[in-house]
Amino acid sequence: MAYPKPTRRSWAEPFKIKVVEPLKTTSRQHRVKAIEEAGHNTFLLRSEDVYIDFLTDSGTNAMSDYQWAGMMLGDEAYAGSKNFYHLESNMRKYYGYKYLVPTHQGRGAEHIISQILIKPGDFIPGNMYFTTTREHQERAGGTFVDIIIDEAHDPDSTHPFKGNVDLQKLEGLIKKVGAKKIPYISVAATVNMAGGQPISMENMKAVRKLATKHGIRVILDATRAIENAYFIKLREKGCQKKSVAGILKELCSYTDAATMSGKKDLLVNIGGFLAINDEKIFDEARNMVVVFEGLHTYGGLAGRDMEAMARGMEEMVKEDYLRARIGQVEYLGQKLMDWEVPIVKPIGGHAVFLDARRILEHIPQDKFPAQTLAAEIYIDSGVRTMERGIVSAGRDPKTGEHRHPKLELVRVTIPRRVYTQAHMDVTAESVLEVHENRKRIKGLKMVYEPKYLRFFQARFDRI
Questions:
Q1: Looking at 316, 348, 379, which one is the last position of a domain?
Q2: HSE-up (13 A, CA, CB side) for residue 344
Q3: Which of 3, 110, 212, 343 could form a disulfide with 136 if both were Cys (CB 3.0 to 4.6 A apart)?
Q4: How many other CB atoms are found less than 10 A from the CB of residue 349?
Q5: pLDDT by residue (tens digit) across 284-294?
Q6: Catalytic positions
Q7: Whether residues 75 and 187 fall in one domain
Q8: Is pTM beyond 0.90 here?
Q9: Among candidate residues 296, 316, 336, the one where a domain is terminated
Q10: What distance in Å separates the CA atoms of residue 208 and residue 223, rounded to the nearest whole number?
Q11: Cβ 143 vs Cβ 122: under 8 Å
């Protein structure tokens, strides 16, 4: 008997499992009690009550034997750790910036650069906000202005680079407020809140050209820049034959500095850095890190953590790893698309984003449909996801009213090198089950709201 040839060849993870961590399965009754005790906020669940944890890809990655071996070589000297110099050397090799300031994680770098560059009354244009980034910009007295292309706000748009900056929006803001009121342009690669969508090399070049014309800096959020580089290799004309490592370095070359959460691309559980080309800004940042993080050669990190980050840089650029990492996210997203579950298209790099606005179209945004959907998925299967909608958007600091983003999403975020395809299948089936029974689901009301970054600690009750 002749069997049909597959339309595409299967791929497997480019690693084998050496250590396992047992997972705990629970009953529906247990999960209902757990989510109620957590105020219907998946951030407030105990991890021991979670079966498959897709809350975030931040610090939840599996390190390699090479990284763990490096941890044993941690130089825990208070000053001048050799691991700092290894990290600095690899940062220059893979990202191309001149100076390095280590921080405990990405928001430490965001805080420092915001305090140095932003003055009260300034405007910071960016390709869609990110929660902690905007919070630091606002705390420094700035106002974030969204200049991403319109397609980024449309979950059904299949534009290959929905992270692109709209150059007309950017130029319009410069004309309106003046270049002196814009300390820098904030560019994320990839754009988390848009669904993990990349920015193109062509667009980055154009942003650099416009910024140079007006004497404005460009600062990169490089948290998932290697995944962005991989998308450029796959999708952008003329880039297919380039190495991902080369694309990453070229992408960074069009910017003046970068904030980095090493807990994503660098495959570690803690760590980050600020990378800078301007010596004067570096000198100020090196002084400030001592006040808020730690000495300029450790920045709140142990030597072993810096060594793990340095080695993670070497591993992140391996294209078989990236093919498997992006492929696993695509596998989950494609299953949901095949079952006609509404998600953000194209499928992003680090997560599948469920379109809660369409799945729970009977629940108005002020009743928190994405928060509701995340809680329902947990109740169904023990899979933990997270809200990315009106709760994450927070309140307008001037009016005190809820911000109403066009995207009301649930992020199913895949840690790197942690879960198998079977876990993707279980998750997809749970999402499908909730989707098929969506009409019975009712919204939530907020009963506790913290002052800052409310999505982390807010509590809700059922309506």
A1: 316
A2: 31
A3: 110
A4: 28
A5: 999 999 999 99
A6: 78, 130-131, 221, 264, 388, 455
A7: yes
A8: yes
A9: 316
A10: 19
A11: yes
